[in-house]
Each structure stands twice: as C-alpha cells, then as structure tokens.
Design a protein that fits this description.
The chain is α+β, with helices and mostly antiparallel strands and 267 residues long. It folds into 2 domains: 141 residues, 2-Layer Sandwich (Fructose-1,6-Bisphosphatase, Chain A, domain 1); 111 residues, D-Maltodextrin-Binding Protein, domain 2, CATH 3.40.190.80. It contains 7 helices and 15 strands. The strands form 3 sheets. The protein has an 8-stranded mixed β-sheet with strand order 4-3-5-6-7-8-9-10, sandwiched between helices. The chain starts with a helix and ends with a helix. 46% of the residues are buried. The site of one calcium ion has 6 residues, from strand 5.
Length: 267
C-alpha cells in the first residue's frame, strides 16, 4: 500500500516532466521538420512527439530507475506487469498539433499494481496543468476541480473521439455519435483524449466516451476524473480495461443513462 507522501512524490516528478515536455512542444509549434504516418492512415508522429518523449523519459528514468515504462513512441522499458508502470503520451492530439490547431496535451500516468493512481495532463497552449493522485483530489493550476452536476442527458454537453482504425471497422463510433447528438445539447470532438478527460473532470463537459484508446491516452486522465468525483467504466458499466481501451467517463448523475444510450445505439 502506497503512502500518500509517496504518491505526492510521484505526482511532483510527473509534473516536472509534463511541464518540461510542454515547453518542448511549444518550441516546436509551427516549426515541424518531420510529419510521418505511423502505418495507419491519419496516425501521425512528428519530431515534436519524439523530442517531448525524450525529455519525459529522461526525468522519469532518472528519478525512478526501477520503474517500468510504456511510452507511445518508444515502447516498453521493463516488465509491463510491474508494480510501477508509467504510461506516457508525449503529445496527445498530434493531428491537431501538426495542423497548428491548438488543442493538444502531455499525458503522464502512473499505474501501481495495474491501477492508475497518479495523473498529470498539461495543456501548454492554455497553460493548464491538471493533476491528481489517489486520495489527493484533482486540480487545475492548483485549484480544486469537480465534475459537473448536470443530471439529465437532454441538458448535457458531451465529447468523444474516433480511433485511427475507423475506416477498417464498423465499430467506429459513428452510430453512437449520431445517437448521442440527438439525445443531448451537443457532442464535441476535440482530438485529444487526455484533454477530453480533463474537461470532464473540470465540469466543462458532462461526459466523454471513446473506443480504441491506449493506456497512455487514458491512465492520467482516469485518475483526474475519479478524483474530481467522476465515474469511469467501460460502456456497459464494467471496470475499464486499459488493454481494451473503451471508456465512458462522466459525472455520476448521468453515467448509467449514458451507458444505456451507448448500449442501445441503433447500428
Ligand atoms: C489520439 C487522440 C484523439 C483520439 C485518438 C487518439 P494521439 O491520440 O487522443 O483524440 O480520438 O483515438 O489516438 O495519436 O494524438 O496521441
Ligand atoms: Ca494519444
Ligand atoms: Ca501521442
């Protein structure tokens, strides 16, 4: 069992890494020399993604040489079933970033015994630092944040996203997007899963769902939503499986009705 002081130490180092990576992303903004597809159409990687990840890895590995890492661009270091596993997305929202659409973030989460317990999501363009650790609450720029209190789907604003395999599968979220658009005040698509979760945590949106995500998209934001009083599950209400990558995160008041709406989407 982790003490709250230990969690605080992990949170501080994750914060140092996220702020350093954010500065790198701002340096490269509008000045990319490499933009490549990673294999799947639309799934980009740039020199900014790589430079940001290098800075994060250096800080995490210097402070915690015995911890394992799962980083989007460089892959795995150490045992992936380890007690301590850092899940790192050095640039969440690469498509936005490559087009100079200023919605992107750094996402750094720590799983302890497989459970996300520390999370930092940093939005350099707005200088917003979202943080949480289990038992410590969630904050934005060190001010406490909470999920919204909207209690009816018809009054809610939601956000979602579409995975890079959307052309290859009929489970591509298009039907769910239409269905929820009819049932709510609107559904947004920001292009950054980490910021979508941070927006649920801060009550700017009432709920978020998406499929096809990776642990580095989710780990940090899940802690932030949970500590802000939100509810997180898979679409059917069961616990999120980080390997499956399907998430429904919302304020607790609309969670079950949102789950029903997703499960009952006409296909
Ligand atoms: C993507 C973003 C996007 C989501 C995709 C993710 P990336 O991450 O979070 O919002 O819809 O599924 O893969 O590629 O920009 O790090
Ligand atoms: Ca991502
Ligand atoms: Ca990324």
């Amino acid at each position: 069992m982790e003490t709250t002081d230990q969690l605080k130490t992990y949170l501080e180092i994750a914060t140092e890494a996220a702020l350093a990576a954010g500065a790198v992303l701002q340096d490269y903004w509008g000045n990319l020399s490499q933009v490549e597809e990673k294999g799947r159409s639309g799934d980009l990687v740039t020199n900014a993604d790589r430079a940001s990840e290098t800075v994060i890895l250096e800080i995490i590995q210097r402070h915690f040489p015995n911890h394992s890492i799962l980083a989007e661009e460089s892959g795995s270091f150490g045992k992936q079933q380890a007690e301590y596993l850092w899940a790192i997305d050095p640039l969440d929202g690469t498509t936005n970033y490559a087009h100079q659409y200023p919605i992107y973030a750094v996402s750094i989460g720590l799983l302890i015994a497989g459970v996300p317990q520390v999370g930092v999501v940093y939005n350099p363009a707005r200088k917003e630092l979202f943080r949480a650790a289990t038992g410590w609450g969630a904050s934005c720029n060190r001010q406490p944040i909470q999920v919204s209190k909207t209690d009816e789907l018809a009054h809610s604003l939601l956000v979602t996203g579409f995975a890079y395999d959307r052309r290859e599968t009929s489970d591509n979220n298009y039907a769910e997007f239409c269905h929820l658009t009819h049932l709510t005040q609107g559904v947004r698509r920001s292009g950054s899963a980490a910021l979508d979760l941070a927006d649920v945590a801060s009550g700017r949106v009432d709920g978020y769902w998406e499929r096809g995500l990776s642990p580095w998209d989710l780990a940090a934001g899940m802690v932030i939503v949970a500590e802000a009083g939100g509810k997180i599950s898979s679409y059917d209400g069961s616990p999120v499986s980080l390997s499956e990558g399907r998430i429904l995160a919302s304020n607790p008041k609309i969670h079950s009705v949102l789950s029903e709406a997703l499960l009952n989407t006409p296909q």
